[in-house]
Amino acid sequence: MTRFEKSFTQQEAIPNDAIEAAVEVMRSGRLHRYNVLPGETSEAEKLEAEFAAYMGVPYCLACTSGGYAIHIGLRSVGVKPGDLVLSNAFTLAPVPGAIEAAGAKPVLVETGEDYCLDLADLDAKAASSGARTLLLSHMRGHIVDMDQIMEICARHQLTLVEDCAHTMGATWDGRKSGTFGKVACFSTQTYKHVNSGEGGFLTTDDPEVIARAIIYSGSYMLYERHGAGPEAEVFDGLRLEVPNMSGRMDNMRAAILRPQLERLDEQCARWNRLYHVLEEGLRNHPHIKLPERPEKEGYVASSIQFALPAFSPEQFQALLKRCFERGVELKWFGNPVPNGYTSRYDSWRYLEVPDLPRTIEVLSTMCDMRIPLTFDEDDCRTIAEVISTTAREVAEAA
To answer: Where are the beta strands (DSSP E) in 285-398?
Structure first.
């Protein structure tokens, strides 16, 4: 039986120019973003301006993580303790965690077969819950119909906050993911589209929202050192009212990210080439179902998801075990026990866990797999062969 030998957690090396930039910051000793010489622009400030330009928006804040960006993004658009926030039931734990950190309560929305939130359930819960904010997670890079999202938000007067941790560089109908809502939040954690270990961005076109976010991030009274921030007078009514919740990005991480940002679109194209090879290898399998991606979705597929609709929980455990023994690491979001980065909504016990039968149905048959850029197209053909053969074996054994 074919065995795959490469690691699913090994990322590409940081580019040499990024390493040199980080070393230069270390030599200077000026790692803190506000520790600059007169007339000098910090690496963090340069990165913010460059990411804002990439997104085509006026304002950007570099943060310690994507989860932190969501937390202060919610606070910056006016979410208060006790408020209800609509959000995906299928997402990663930092998303409801950010809602909880803001003192709000999630209203979880059912999941469709496309792995996006169910629009009919969103419409119904927006009408019945009284929530005024939608935290939309583009989970695993799947973009829901944004035309319908904007119509629902307008009809129910919802403020949209986008979690774009998995859609940096992606588009809907030619428009960048992260430019639809009042706020967008991105991650630069190791397994995202640019890698600083941990980190994130908050972007917006609203001057008061970014002013609040900058103060929340711990700017002290140094908010003028944000080249992708608003004019100083925007801070006048906020600077003594908004609390400091320190979560600034440092200059070393910013230095590592700036050269990567220049290569982002090229990296996104590489991910999609690998995804297409995997998709081709799994598409016609009798037991595997791949999601249909809308024509308007310009996705960045740094991972792949697929369903085995007829498999039982025991068959999933057998599939995962055999694939792992053959070098292929699959994750199963249907597992009722959290494992690694995967957890099902009903394991987040700090929430009032709702009954979401459609989400359970979808997740109970779904597999998830990272696609590191250390893989090549031949690697993806081998992986597809391992998954295909193993799925047939497990089905026949049953």
So the answer is: 297-298, 303-307, 331-332, 366-370
Rounded to an integer, what distance in angstroms lies between the CA atom of residue 47 and that of residue 33? 11
* 185 shares a domain with 320: no
Taking the whole predicted model, whether its pTM rises above 0.70 is answered as yes
Beta-carbon-side half-sphere exposure of residue 394 (alpha carbons within 13 Å): 24
Q: For residues 121 and 385, what is the distance between their CA atoms, to the nearest angstrom?
A: 37
Q: What is the CATH number of the domain that holds 281?
A: 3.90.1150.10
**pLDDT tens-digit readout, 33-45:** 999 999 899 999 9
In a 13 Å sphere around the CA of 190, the CA atoms on its Cβ side amount to: 8
Identify the segments of the chain with pLDDT beneath 50.
none
Euclidean distance between CA atoms 236 and 238, whole angstroms: 6
Tell me the per-residue pLDDT of 76-92, one tens digit each, with 9 for 90 and over: 999 999 999 999 999 99
Strand partners of residue 63: 200, 248
The pLDDT, as a whole number, for residue 243 is 96
Residue 317 maps to a domain: yes
Neighbours of 32 (CB within 10 A): 13
| Domain enclosing residue 364, as ranges | 264-397
Q: Determine contact, residues 203/52, Cβ cutoff 8 Å.
A: yes
